[in-house]
Predict the 3D structure of the following.
Amino acid sequence: MSILQWIYSVLSFLGHDVGYALAYIIESIILLIFVSISLIVMVYLFRKYMARVQQRIGPNRVGKFGLLQLIADALKLAGKEVIFPKERDDLPYKVAPFVVFFGLVLAFAFLPYGNLSIFGDLTITYSDVSIIFIFAILSIMPIGEVLAGIGSHNKYALMGALRSVAKDVSFEVPMMISVLAIVMMASARTATSLNLESIVTTEILPYGILEPIGLFVFFIAMIARASYAPFDMGESDSELVSGYSTEYTGLRFGLFYMGLFGTIFLGSLLVSLLYLGGFNGPISSQVGFIWLLVKGIVLVLISFTVWLSMPRIRIDKLVNVGWKYLLPISFINLVLAGVLTLGLGW
Amino acid sequence: MHGVLRLKAKLDGEVIKELEPVIGYLHRNAEKLCEMGFYCDNLIYFDRMDYVGAMNMEVGYLEAAEKILGVPPPERAKWIRVIMAELSRLAAHLVWAGAYGLDLGMLTPFFYCFGEREKILTIFTEACGSRQETNYMSIGGVYQDFNEKIIEEIKDFLKTFPKRMEIIYNIYVKNDVFLSRTKGIGVLSRDLAIAYGVTGPMLRASGVEYDVRKAEPYLVYDKVNFDIPISHKGDNLARFLVRFEEMRQSLKIIKQALDKLPEGPYFNPKAKKSMMIRMRGDGEYYARTESSKGEFGVYIVGDGGVKPYRVRVRSPTFKNLSILPVLSKDVMLADMIAISGSIDLVFGEIDR
Amino acid sequence: MVDIIQESMGKDGRKIIQVSVENLIPLMNEMRSNGFDHLSLVTAIDRKDSIDVVYHLHSMDRNEYVVVKVNTKNYVVPSVTGIWPSANWDEREQYDLVGVKFEGHPNLKRLFLPEGWIGHPLRKDYDLSKVQYVNMDEDGEDYATFDAGDGW
């Protein structure tokens, strides 16, 4: 039983239509809260982990262990004066952060979250083509960045937007092809092989073991999509001030910032679902969600470590990495997956 | 990079076609201020030039001013100055090493470098009560003698630092992305470097074995044993390696200087405090010293009065920066940042 | 051989060669071909009624220093940028701060101070009591004015 059904059973006295409508609204609010809290935890985790790596203390003043620091930061950002650039293109400028952030939140709705003891199945929405849906949303987010870059009427913002689009496009393709390999292998076992949940539940071994090359390509592409170092030339501070978010202040800047951490969290959850078994694990019928979360956070920490120890790659070399190395590798992976599925009958 | 630099660039996509540095945002006209102060007052303006390695600037000014005034420092003061100048060189190179990582988008080494630099600044605080603008040396010697605690602290530092330095070094050179950003980028040929007056680690990375400490030894640099690191590659990586090797040589110099530190007065009695403002300088003297950035020259012209008639500073980074438009023609924007980082710019010194 | 007005030894043990303005470029060309490949410093000294321009030349191979001095009454000296490219910024700086015109310089603009600054600060007769403000125009270029403007 999913959350939706659970809420509906409480509200069933309102009748079918009104009950479901209310249940959907409440569910969306729960989703928003979940994403916000997990992003705040992610930022806190990042700052503490970064401080640990850099032999500092990190946030430690507001609340116990600085736990309330992020809430204070968010309130500060929300309370700041909003400064609009004079020659902005009004609509794209204002809409861009919301495109990025709400696209991200939407993608979270289609992830299967697994079970958690008394709450049952935590998955919010089912779809038979959830993989396609998630990747469709992921390709909407660069549009938000382009809108921000063009709408700001700023050279740095424009160049940052162009760079991040070049990066997103060149890593999108290897990413999709490595997912295709998984869909191919899953289709041998399930009829709904585009459904993320049925891929995870029907697997015998985690796909990361069967095709480590796919895991490698997907993980790198995921870090690149999330604009993490060494692929953060979109907002490289020493060259382009802050890239496409240069002209943003206050809450809108906060949304971009959250988008940065949200993408890495979403990507880590995707990697753990697709390649590392997701919510599978010992007693997964009771604590599947915990397994998913643990795997996701470990992957996030790995990406943080990469961020903290790598300088930026030059943009032309980055595009080379995407098209000349990752793409051929992902094709090889696709062929291997085909051999595994058809030849060996895995 | 440290300070305010404005670069006007004409871009073709990501490739720089034309670059013009605009400087002067930190201009105080220290040369004019020096004309208005007594010889002993002017030291503070030199502290504020290369503020990340202030002791080297003090050495440079005093080399010229003491010759003009005719008050040589005693032997112990010379050795103390060498120790402090080399510690300062380490501090300046650490700032550079950290900031270079930031220029390339690498956050972590910055904190490692500044953590080590903090230990050097603690030694400075112990010696004179100030961290950055130390004003430690004075005409005719140094402001305060070394006590046991300072020597102990320096010895502790010498024990712990080499290991930490190797960690920082390895963070950089064992990183393939760092190598791809530095190897073969911004190649500066020997002739071009000399013609543009480039000095210091940048010149040595282009294959010229020129170090003022060897070429024209001042203080007691002729009594210590050290090598001049050079490289013939002339690219960003060569400059990086030369600077790190220089730090190792600095450690060597400090070690020897601590062993050889003689007993005796640390101050020339001719330069007592009451005498200081009455000292008159005549003639002209051009003193050149090797600061952490290159050949730091101070040209003082005296007219027999208590204040210098004209003070002129040869700032090494000023000359080194003038090569940037040449080096960054037809390179990518990101490479230009890497090149400008490898020059080791400090704007207190360029703008003066 | 170029005519030399006076040759002496400085306090720092470096040879000082005094030449007239007309003979500066021939002498510098000769110096350059003699192996003085590094122009260390260009200094202009305001002597109230005239200006001394001092060139510190250095030879990297022989590690030898020579000082060349010229004296000019009308604040004009020929530029040596064609001989040593490093003189470019040095001469701009001296033009900016002392007000010597370097004839034949490719780009003789102010270096530190903004365009429109009145006076040259390192002149002995520079009026220090006059306050000048630096403003920024729409394109980000600096210019100097005598009133405080709008704070930029």
